[in-house]
Amino acid sequence: MTETSTLPDYPRGITFEQVWAGMMEDRDRQLESIKPEFVVSIPTAEEEVNIVLLELSRLKSMEARNYWIMLPNTSLFIEFENKLRADRILTNADRIAIKNHFINDVYDPTDYQPSFDTLCRVAERANKEIEKFIMLKNSWGFNVPENYQVRMTLYGPCGRAFPDTGEMLIRINKKNTWVFDPLTTILHEAIHIGKSNIITQRYNVPHWTNERLVDLIGVKLIPDYIIELPVNLAELPIDIIFENPDVLDRLPYYVEEFMREHSKSVEK
Ligand SMILES: [Zn+2]
User: Fold this and answer.
1) What is the rounded distance in angstroms from the CA atom of residue 259 to the CA atom of residue 8?
2) Is the Cβ–Cβ distance between 36 and 146 less than 8 Å?
3) Euclidean distance between CA atoms 201 and 161, whole angstroms
4) How far is the centre of ligand 1, averaged over its atoms, from the C-alpha of 218 (Å)?
5) How do 38-41 and 159-162 pair as beta strands?
6) In sequence order, which residues have a C-beta less than 8 Å from that of residue 68 and are 6 or more positions away?
7) Per-residue b/e over 4-31, b at no fewer than 16 CB within 10 Å?
8) 88 C-alpha vs ligand 1 centroid, how far in Å?
9) 252 C-alpha to center of ligand 1: Å?
């Protein structure tokens, strides 16, 4: 047998280095194609009215926590909001009236365009931080979905996360002005998605402690993250665990310890 017959069958004139470089490029392309990213979308009228109905159903409990909930500013909606605040519930006929009114008189897809362009740029920037989430995933199972679906809405609180599907709602306005930094809001909701099952649910972390925890993870991981919670809500003892240099590597352990020691003193 000649020596050449045992070599891999490279096309003539191509060096081993070139073949190797090609294999590496293919691998990079494959890795690139499976990398999660933030995908921004404008809601259809149907999707948006379903969000409005969801926010109406949670209106009383959100307002009890001092959240400011945006809803369509028409007399029909104000009437329904007051009905819900007075402990009444929406009937099927109410829901149909809301849907028809919203789709015919309120929804306008052009309202979303200015903020869409901004959010797409923010999403590009946020994509650069996903690697850090993947590190937490490898350390202790932080949930990183296939992609983050960033659904724009004109209604509700400034953000809302759906950990089971990797979706988030980001509230925008027609003028493309922002009450909260949009990059922080997107990353904040991504951290909720990441830690919801493995920490929040498992250790039954109370609401504001959980919000503080999300923000503390945010600032520790991401240089541009801005803590926007009011100071009185921010002064909860969960800050203590962040004095440990390895807190992010072993976060579930530290939260479990914290909850065991402080479960009687933190708010429910
Ligand atoms: Zn939050």
Assistant:
1) 60
2) yes
3) 14
4) 11
5) unpaired
6) 157
7) eeeeeeeeeeeeeeeeeeeeeeeeeeee
8) 28
9) 18
Average pLDDT over residues 167-176: 97
Window from 93-102, 180-189, 219-228, 232-241 with minimum mean pLDDT: 232-241
pTM of the entire predicted model: 0.83
pLDDT in tens, 118-154: 999 999 999 999 999 999 999 999 999 999 999 999 9
Q: How far is the CA of 183 from the centre of ligand 1 (A)?
A: 13
Please tell me the distance between residue 267's alpha carbon and the centre of ligand 1 in angstroms: 16
> pLDDT category, 265, cuts 50, 70, 90?
low
Cα end-to-end distance, the chain, whole Å: 79
Distance 266 CA to ligand 1 centre (A): 17
- Cα of 5 vs centre of ligand 1, distance in Å, is 63
Residue 23 CA, ligand 1 centroid: distance in Å = 43
